[in-house]
């Protein structure tokens, strides 16, 4: 959030501008043994409030409910499209809003800061596959996942020592992690917004205007 304040001073200048986070979670309302049904909730929370208040029920906006026989999977973005359009409008344009404490109107903007979800819901929101050897959203194609010999399953054990400092003692530890393995490599490169868009364009989904990045 501090980084956001540095790169968007015009937004920070108006203290009443709203910072939002989106939470989503799915559950089976009839229990595991009941009839097959999956319900997904989408909640938007304002982070202008103190931490002790922002996650309390009165300040959580129940944005959408997705009752379906099965989870929405890749269709989540379809249900979120009206919400995203409204969030884009609140970011790009000032909206006249009433301040009840000062009894006056002001021009408000809103920003969408982050999402909060478990790993399966993260896959639905982002479109990132959270299964298989490339499941780690940080490592991506630079993943160091391994396949277990006996179960033939993918494991990410001991794939993240490379994020430690070069002189960290865990890098040279040959017993607590994978046996006789020393980590000498560094973390994967951090992609810029333009590089991310280039990879998406290569998949043929859309053509973006990179001047916006």
What does this structure look like?
By secondary structure, the chain is an alpha+beta fold. It has helices spanning 2-7, 9-13, 51-54, 76-92, 119-126, 193-202, and strands at residues 18-27, 38-46, 61-68, 95-99, 104-108, 110-116, 146-147, 154-155. 23% of the residues lie in helices and 23% in strands. The chain is globular. A four-stranded mixed beta sheet has the order 3-2-1-6, with helices on one face. β7 and β8 form a beta hairpin. The protein folds into two domains: 2-117, no CATH class; 131-213, no CATH class.
In short:
This protein is of the alpha+beta class and 213 residues long. It has helices spanning 2-7, 9-13, 51-54, 76-92, 119-126, 193-202; strands at 18-27, 38-46, 61-68, 95-99, 104-108, 110-116, 146-147, 154-155. It has six helices and eight strands.
* Global geometry: globular
Number of strands: 8
Averaged pLDDT, please? 84
What would you call the structural class?
A: alpha+beta
* Tally of individual domains: 2
The sequence of SSEs as H and E is HHEEHEHEEEHEEH
Strand content: 15-25%
How far apart, in Å, are the first and last alpha carbons? 19 Å
Which spans of ≥5 residues are poorly predicted at pLDDT below 50? Answer: none
């Amino acid at each position: 959030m501090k980084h956001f304040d540095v790169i968007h001073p015009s937004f920070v200048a108006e203290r009443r501008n709203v910072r939002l986070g989106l939470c989503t979670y799915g559950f089976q309302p009839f229990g595991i043994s009941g009839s097959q049904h999956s319900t997904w909730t989408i909640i938007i929370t304002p982070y202008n409030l103190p931490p002790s208040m922002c996650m309390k029920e009165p300040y959580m906006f129940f944005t959408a409910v997705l009752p379906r026989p099965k989870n929405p999977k890749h269709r989540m973005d379809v249900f979120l499209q009206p919400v995203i359009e409204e969030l884009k409008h609140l970011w790009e344009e000032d909206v006249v809003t009433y301040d009840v404490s000062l009894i006056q109107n002001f021009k408000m903007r809103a920003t969408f800061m982050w999402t909060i979800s478990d790993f399966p819901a993260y896959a639905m929101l982002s479109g990132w596959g959270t299964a298989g050897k490339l499941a780690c959203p940080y490592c991506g194609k630079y993943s160091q996942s391994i396949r277990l010999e006996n179960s033939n399953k993918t494991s990410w054990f001991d794939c993240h020592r490379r994020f430690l400092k070069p002189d960290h003692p865990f890098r040279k530890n040959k017993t607590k992690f994978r046996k006789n393995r020393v980590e000498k490599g560094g973390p994967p490169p951090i992609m810029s917004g333009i590089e991310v868009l280039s990879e998406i364009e290569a998949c043929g989904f859309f053509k973006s205007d990179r001047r916006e990045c």
